[in-house]
Design a protein that fits this description.
With 279 residues, the protein is an alpha/beta fold. It has one domain (4-275): P-loop containing nucleotide triphosphate hydrolases (Rossmann fold). Helices cover 39% and strands 23% of the residues. It has twelve helices and ten strands. It has helices spanning 44-52, 77-83, 95-98, 105-116, 124-134, 140-144, 153-165, 183-200, 211-217, 235-240, 245-254, 268-275; strands spanning 4-13, 18-28, 33-37, 59-67, 70-71, 88-91, 171-175, 203-208, 220-225, 228-234. The chain has a six-stranded mixed β-sheet with strand order 6-7-8-3-9-10, with helices on both faces. β9 (220-225) and β10 (228-234) form a beta hairpin. The two termini are 37 Å apart.
């Protein structure tokens, strides 16, 4: 049994039933790392939110999402809440949105721990400090007592990684977790994430517009375009012999020094032009 099985997942929005993702299917095994790559609007984030049960009320979702064999589509909020932060967790793109600006970060990490764990109230502070140190925050005591605005972007994102992993979830979904960071800080956060995933034996679904970033974290990748998966396979195969024109453009762009890691990729039309193909 796979850890995550997604079959025919389709999401439509609004009265006009605009399709955001269409017939998306994939599986993810224990401790595996899978990347999803595509330009803005390709359906990456909608896929992640659908898996977490965080889509807005105007979303109509069909298909199947199974976590350890349990169907999760259609679960009530109380049932989803039991999964989030324990079995499934998520690292969002912008830590200032993910963190409560009015609450000290140590308390925020502790709340995730206490919500799901048992018999931890007496040593939750100790567990939080330990986890902050594990994600590379040396001055963990000060960090825990700080508000988000008192930390740098890289520190805030590492706090988010700590929150996502403190309960040793089976799967963590990372939605563009380093896009808002400069190249140096991005590399540090990716290194911390890579080490923590190994240490916690946690599977990862890593979403990005940057194929070079995905290749640092994942062994396999799905390429999304207009809400559909157009190509999938091992990272090394995608780099060596991409088959879809869009993927060829992604690979060509990723291998050019003109595009700095973390910067937005050209438009889909540019990809096709660069690949020497028509859509």
């Amino acid at each position: 049994m796979s850890l995550l099985e997604v079959s025919g997942l389709t999401v439509r929005f609004g009265r006009r039933q605009v399709v955001a993702i269409d017939d998306v299917s994939f599986t993810l095994g224990e401790q595996e790392r899978l990347g999803i790559i595509g330009e803005s609007g390709s359906g990456k984030t909608v896929t992640a939110l659908a898996l977490m049960g965080l889509l807005p009320e105007n979303a109509a979702v069909t298909g199947s999402v199974r976590v350890r064999g349990q169907e999760t589509l259609g679960l009530g909020e109380a049932e989803y809440a039991k999964l989030r932060g324990d079995t499934l967790s998520m690292v969002f793109q912008e830590p200032m949105t993910a963190l409560d600006p009015t609450m000290r970060v140590g308390r925020q990490v502790a709340e995730v721990l206490l919500l799901h764990a048992r018999n931890t109230s007496g040593n939750s502070r100790q567990r939080v400090i330990e986890m902050l140190r594990r994600v590379g925050l040396a001055d963990a005591e000060r960090i825990a007592d700080s508000y988000p605005h008192q930390l740098s972007g890289g520190q805030r994102q590492r706090v988010c990684v700590a929150m996502a992993l403190i309960n040793s979830p089976d799967l963590v979904i990372c939605d563009e977790p380093t896009t808002a960071l400069d190249v140096t800080v991005q590399a540090r956060v990716l290194k911390v994430l890579d080490e923590m995933l190994d240490a916690e034996h946690t599977a990862c679904l890593f979403i990005s517009h940057d194929l070079a970033v995905v290749s640092q974290v994942c062994s396999h990748v799905l390429v999304m375009l207009d809400g559909r998966i157009v190509e999938s396979g091992p990272i090394h195969r995608i780099f060596a012999t991409p088959s879809h024109p869009y993927t060829k453009g992604l690979v060509a762009t990723a291998q050019l020094d003109k595009v700095a890691p973390g910067s937005p990729l050209p438009t889909v039309a540019d990809f096709y032009t660069r690949a020497g193909a028509t859509r």
